[in-house]
UniProtKB/TrEMBL annotation:
Domain of life: Bacteria
Matching Gene3D superfamilies: FAD/NAD(P)-binding domain (3.50.50.60), Glucose Oxidase, domain 3 (3.30.560.10)
Species assigned in the record: Halomonas flagellata
CC cofactor: FAD
UniProt similarity note: Belongs to the GMC oxidoreductase family.
Domain Glucose-methanol-choline oxidoreductase N-terminal: 274-288
Pfam family, one: GMC_oxred_N
Protein name (record): GMC family oxidoreductase N-terminal domain-containing protein
Key words of the record: FAD, Flavoprotein
InterPro entries assigned: FAD/NAD-bd_sf, GMC_OxRdtase, GMC_OxRdtase_N, GMC_OxRtase_C
Amino acid sequence: MAEQEFDYIIVGAGTAGCLLANRLSADPANRVLLIEAGGRDNYHWIHIPVGYLYCIDNPRTDWRFRTEPDPGLNGRSLIYPRGKTLGGCSSINGMLYIRGQARDYDSWAEATGDDAWRWENCLPDFMKHEDHHRLDAGGDADAAHRDYHGHGGEWRVEKQRLKWQVLDDFATAAVEAGIPRTRDFNRGDNEGVDYFEVNQRSGWRWSTAKAFLRGAEKRDNLTLWHSTQVLGLELEQGSETGQGGVPRCTGVRVERGGKPTAVRAGLEVILSAGAIGSPQLLQLSGIGPADLLREHEIPVIHDLPGVGENLQDHLQIRSVYRVTGAKTLNTMANSLVGKAGIGLEYLLKRSGPMSMAPSQLCAFTRSSEEYEHPNIEYHVQPLSLPAFGQPLDDFPAITASVCNLNPTSRGTVRIKSADPRQAPAIATHYLSTPEDRKVAADSLRVTRRIAEQPAFAKYSPEEVKPGLEYQSDEELARLAGDIGTTIFHPVGTTRMGRDDDPMAVVDARLRVRGVAGLRVVDAGVMPTITSGNTNSPTLMIAEKAAGWILGGE
């Protein structure tokens, strides 16, 4: 294939990539190429909310990564889903709209020395693409809501189309345990309990491919290559004035239709391949820790030791309670009549269990009084199962999963060879610090305190998992290692930072340090993980980056 040239090449049509493609191609003078390794998002289970069960660990929609055996998980290895289709993780994730806390973004400003990352300066980027249901005609927005939310943007936020009495009562129990009710988790302080709001439209999943790519794809100046594997970056020694001889990224090498080809970028290459894919591509291309590159006989173009370091994720610890006198999905879905009713409700109303996000009820609170801010998050579901992908239990139950919002454990993403088709080694290092083990133990105690409150005690809850025999800090921390699982929020592996920070991969404007013409725009640039679900913060990052790119920064 003959070499082609574009102004901008975006690697990855996921959460960040779809928004960037939309924004950069809005100017017809910009020639934009968007490259996605996965296929089109024409698999029906992508669009039905409960279909995440059939998309995760499915080669049609998921990279199907696995973690290295983890000492913190007592030697276990976990599946590590990452979207491999248009929309990326937004096509297979939980659809939960959570921004995090204001202090998250203020800490990014401190880490980078750039006030552009402060909460008050990130809020407009969240609002720019938002389409919040409470601001619809006839919506129930209050005055404060209008100050924090947008309407008319591409990213739809709606109420869930279901209700469970057992979850209502768990929420009341949480209030009895000292957690306030809230109407909005997204004003900078997310403490409280309520149902999650979701990225859906009328009972269908609303991915970034639908939101940002559908209309933009028709533009003459936007080219989409799906089912195209990026093999590496094209790099040349820089000779432009002001570049100081640093290498410049001039394009990418891809395999398309079974044939290799090179594509040039006149202005920039933008990596939006995610916190696993972007550091892998950098390392494969000779940008990363020099010792790692030499180990795999890759020429060192730029020794950048932070590439693939600083991996952070939210580890969830699932408590299962058997209940009596409550309707749960376990009892509904374990009969042919129940399954038929569920399917009929979705067919007629786009509501009920088939419209369910993976979690319904949310709570943010503190694991102990020593914390001044909420440091744990609950995802509560009216169901239980032994493990993801397995059948529901045959008894009525709920699951209250709790995660540490601000883990101090850090992992790594490192290539295993120079072969771009070989998955990298993902070492999560969960529960590797005393602080994280203590939060794990304390958070399980908070779950028990909620379950003991009168509003929930009427269901005679029995703690099936982990079991009341685990009581001490040591027992609960070891138990967390036995049952903890990822909540699918990897970030931080190409983190931004100050110029004098040797482990920073990108600067405050997300430009790769020491390489011209190359930027990273995805969850990997987060210095620290947000205090909540990470999809919409990644979209905010892309919105901010698009403005900088178009402004020539």
